[in-house]
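User: My collaborator sent over this chain with a note saying "see what the structure looks like." That's all I know about it. Can you take a look?
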Amino acid sequence: MALSRSVKYQIRDNPNSDFCCVPQCAMSGKLNSCVSFHHFPKDETLRKVWIRNVRRENLVIKRTTTVCSRHFIDTDVIPGGRRRLKEGAVPVLFAWNNYSLLPARPSVWERTQRPEDELPEEMDVELLLQCHDYDGKPEPSALDMACEKIEAQQLVIEELRKRLNEVTLKQSFGLERFSASDDDIRFYTRFASYQHFQAFWRQIEPATRRIVRVGTRAPTLTTTAPDKAADPPRRPNRCLPLIDELFLFLVYLSLGLKEKDLGDRFNIHQSTVSRIIKTWVNFLYTLLGAIGVWMSPEAIRATMPSVFGKYSDTQVIIDCTEMRCQTPSSLLLQSELFSQYKSHTTLKGMIGVSPHGAVTFVSSLFSGSVSDKELFRQSGIIPLLDKDMAVMVDKGFRVDELVPCKVYRPPFLSKKSQLSHEEVLVTQDIARLRIHVERAIRRIKENKLFDTIIPLTIAGSINQLFAVACLLTNYQNKPLVKAWAKES
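Assistant: Without extra context I'll predict from the sequence alone. Here is the result:
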């Protein structure tokens, strides 16, 4: 049936470098010549069968890689001076099957000794089929188990993909990272919630198609030949989506971060951050400034809170605010910007709010040494007032002769030792109503850019930044008093 396994292999006088690659087989060219060594076939299909049978899946086949004749049945080896294998021969005899292909309980006919030439030719194929059932099909239960295993692996892949997306989102500093937390949205943008921010974005998104980016070159007028059309202007490449650019600008306004810090957070260059900030401050200044925030007397009366009973004709509540700025090196500029009230160089602006709390007027910024009366005169609010209106101001605004309307202002003590009972009540009533303009200014100064010392490097765009911050409060916040929302 096969070469006797009881042969004692002796060391040859002239050994060669042949060896068997089958695991647990120690045959090599150092032993006697009763064993021959055979190279792997060139046919890919047959070679894969050899590799699978010798149980060496990761086997690297070289010119010296061989299988000894011990692993082939005797009829597969053609005797002669140089032993060769029959075409299609496959190694099937190994140590793990005791070099035998016979079943555990052979039949009587198979146990009867016969000469080798009486064996039928079909025996080789039959033995091969016993060892390797190539036509066999897996049982249905095995297919079911394989399908279940594939489904389980797909679920694991989906879970890993979800975790990867979460990790990637956490590493990127953008709006979507904080979309699940209204507290984070409030901290970074001053908007009350993510839905609130999205509502504002939907209002301005159509206008972003016409946004003019700072730093882009204007198209030059060139004379071209009639037969050659001019190339269309190239659109600048964006490092961030438009909504994330707006988010970056709001973070800059809300937290007052340096451009270098923002560049590290958003993974872009510092110069790109500077261009984005300048682009969006000019865009929002133009867009929000084009919307008329000054309200008509009819609209004011329609939204008038009931607490303004005796002052129901109030059109606007006026107050000034000061923001500390970096001290310039020029002594002349220092004297102009120095504020006695803040004991520091400041920029001063005037805010006007309607009785129900909306910002309806924003002046330009002036030097800190200017008085409230002079700022009121130069702010441009006087042409907006008429005789049927009234303004509510603080004691520093002695503007009675400047305006054509009533002025509600707390009374002065003058030369009197104390205020009368009626004057005290008037002072309390006006102070109780004027406090709302202070709350509106506090909302504006929640933007840390104005709550710290403003650097002179942004002096060229500080007016736009201040106006945008004031106008954004009308979109970012809820009513100053919850009860007013029910009244309106």
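A starting point for your reply to your collaborator: DSSP finds 16 helices and eleven strands in the chain.
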